[in-house]
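Milestone 3.1: sequence recovery, worked example.
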């Protein structure tokens, strides 16, 4: 079996969870006897720091994928010809869009329907483009992989894809990075965190992540017990609105908006955090919740979309559209030490149920079904 991996989308360091997906899946698939892989990467990935796509046969699609137009052009124009020349039996597209023509079989992973379920998640023309490309990819594929059962329901309902050709393949949680966390005193000084308890949320600064409502809930906590809210994550046009809202609420001194921090600082934040909060309105999977759980950080998260599947009974959940409920969950985690102790115990066990080896094995089974069909 010769499988082409469509990585035209992947700009290293800038692609979030879909990059994690590729980095974890590729080495495990490469270890499967009898499975031949070819990765199709863009210029940035080809020229960047070594990644798992460099460890297998790979070809460079001649586009700069920071341009959405070039990404789509490379995927629709170049990739089908390149995959045909390489002799691929099947092309697996890992990021919700896929070539709509070519004589190979297709598997597409649709991580979420953000563009439809929470339109504010994408800015400008991107939302319109996803509204065309994702349905076309799903309908033209022999099999569609989703990360959670809730997303399978969405794909069937909103894209008209028969449930029989949708496969639920949960993501995994990798090993904790072998890096020493930045010591808490050093981290507090570096990020100007003061001496308040730390409430952490690792999230892209995008509207559907519901950070505006989180800021408002945080501001309503009494000043004496209000934690330092730390929101690392890559910057977007929405960040200016968030900073402005914190200023309006008078909580700028208790909120920090660092960009993506290095791994040592991120591990330091997890180690120092009293709790982790994730109020997203819609998630295809919710990997940040599992990453916090794996490290034993007590979690409070939204009760929407895939998050109840991921969190199970190992997190405190709330209605993300109810600011009072968000605030109450935060205060409860801050004050209830027995609850935090239970979540510190149960979180790693829940995260341990999600394994990348199982993800790779289930993905291989999807390839076999696609070719048999």
């Amino acid at each position: 079996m010769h499988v082409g991996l469509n990585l035209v989308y992947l700009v290293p360091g800038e692609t979030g969870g879909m990059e994690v997906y590729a980095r974890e899946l590729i080495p495990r698939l490469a270890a499967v006897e009898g499975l031949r892989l070819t990765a199709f990467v863009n210029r940035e990935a080809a020229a960047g720091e070594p990644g798992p796509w460099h460890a297998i046969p790979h070809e460079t699609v001649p586009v700069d994928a920071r341009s959405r137009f070039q990404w789509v052009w490379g995927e629709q124009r170049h990739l089908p010809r390149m995959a045909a020349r390489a002799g691929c039996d099947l092309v697996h597209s890992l990021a919700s869009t896929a070539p709509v023509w070519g004589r190979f079989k297709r598997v597409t992973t649709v991580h979420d329907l953000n563009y439809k379920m929470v339109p504010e998640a994408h800015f400008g023309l991107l939302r319109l483009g996803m509204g065309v490309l994702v349905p076309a990819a799903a309908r033209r594929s022999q099999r569609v992989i989703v990360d959670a059962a809730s997303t399978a329901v969405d794909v069937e309902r909103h894209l008209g894809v028969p449930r029989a050709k949708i496969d639920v393949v949960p993501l995994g949680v990798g090993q904790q990075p072998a890096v020493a966390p930045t010591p808490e005193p050093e981290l507090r000084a570096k990020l100007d965190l003061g001496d308040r308890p730390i409430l952490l949320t690792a999230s892209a600064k995008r509207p559907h992540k519901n950070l505006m409502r989180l800021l408002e809930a945080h501001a309503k906590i009494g000043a004496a017990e209000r934690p330092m809210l730390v929101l690392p994550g890559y910057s977007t046009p929405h960040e200016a609105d968030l900073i402005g809202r914190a200023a309006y609420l008078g909580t700028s001194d208790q909120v920090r908006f660092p960009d993506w921090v290095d791994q040592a600082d991120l591990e330091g934040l997890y180690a120092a955090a009293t709790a982790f909060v994730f109020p997203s309105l819609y998630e295809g999977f919710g990997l940040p919740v599992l990453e916090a759980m794996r490290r034993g950080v007590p979690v409070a998260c939204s009760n929407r979309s895939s998050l109840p599947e991921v969190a199970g009974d190992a997190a405190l959940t709330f209605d993300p559209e109810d600011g009072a409920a968000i605030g109450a969950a935060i205060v409860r985690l801050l004050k209830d030490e027995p609850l935090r102790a239970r979540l510190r115990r149960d979180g790693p066990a829940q995260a341990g149920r999600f394994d990348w080896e199982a993800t790779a094995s289930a993905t291989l089974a999807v390839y076999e079904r696609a070719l048999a069909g």
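The two ends are 14 Å apart (CA to CA). Residues 68-86 form the longest helix (19 residues).
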